[in-house]
Amino acid sequence: MNINSSTKLLGIIGYPIKHSLSPTLHTLLAKKYELNYVYLAFEILPENFKFIKNVVLTLNICGLNITIPYKEKIIPYLDEIDKEAQYIGAVNTVVNRNNKLVGYNTDVYGVIKSLENVDIENEEAIVIGCGGVSKAIICAFEELGIRKVYIYDIDKNKMQMLKEKFDDFVVLIKQNDIDEIVSNVRIVVNATPLGMKENDPPPLNLQKIKKEHIIYDVIYNRETQLVKHAKDIGCKEVIDGVKMFVYQAEQSFFLWTGVKPDTKFMFKIVNKLLSKK
Question: 48-96 pLDDT, tens per residue?
């Protein structure tokens, strides 16, 4: 790919952002399909986020991925929001359409695709963490026929917002309840940032994990303690963040370019990048 004066700009915004594999993945996708795009990572300080719309329009950025901690904060700066993203209350993909910023949530698609071969209908789940990604997970669980979701976050306001959004589908729990709930549900989800860094503690008591559990961890940049422990004890279904990451990226790339990329190629890139870490 030759960068020239016609090259279109895509990117990802977040804080922190240096761990992201998105720039390499999407730039290689553009090269594969001979599209004149380049994709960069932009680490935006919280105090500078208020300028985001002016920056996107001024630089004519064609599309963005949005990650922690801006999936909800981006919404007031958008001109339009897709119905699903509006229902969830979180946006992870923005398309610049003729200077109108349109928000989508491709995380829901990513969750559903990553669970397409796992039977979870009528099961119960616990989701630790109530940020933007957890909204997409709970929405996907609704679509997939899960019966009930227990939620916990250190931020009580975030818990309450999810309760108001999903009503009786979610049950608020206290930190002291986590061990008991984990023991009684089949699906355990880490939707916190815990695990992104090597020395991060696990989000829950690993001794409560049983072989029968389905473990779902949104962290993709490294193998978390939760994922490693679940594999070590022989859990039948252990899904790390790689599947969700690839499938949400597939949908984002399609929204920006109109090209549906080959996910086998995408998995190959991501796994190669992760093996070098």
Answer: 999 999 999 999 999 999 998 999 999 999 999 999 999 999 999 999 9
Cα-Cα-Cα-Cα torsion 167, 169, 173, 177, nearest 10 degrees, comes to: 170
pLDDT of residue 230: 98
Strands in 187-190's sheet, in edge-to-edge order, are 170-172, 148-152, 124-128, 187-190, 214-217, 237-239
Low-confidence ranges of the chain (pLDDT < 50): none
Could you give phi then psi for residue 100, rounded to 5 degrees?
-115, 125
Q: Output b/e per residue, 44-58; b: 16+ Cβ within 10 A.
A: beeeebeebbeebee
Q: Is the pTM of this model over 0.85?
A: yes
Q: Report CA 124 to chain centroid distance, whole Å.
A: 21
DSSP symbols for 145-162: T--EEEEE-S-HHHHHHH
Q: So what's the pLDDT on residue 245?
A: 96
pLDDT of residue 18: 86
C-alpha–C-alpha distance, residues 265 and 147, integer Å: 35
Domains of the chain, start order: 8-105+244-275 (3.40.50.10860), 109-239 (3.40.50.720)
To the query of whether residue 71 is one of the catalytic residues in this protein, the response is: yes
Q: How is residue 257 written in tokens?
A: 């370019």
Q: Which of 31, 32, 71, 260 is catalytic?
A: 71
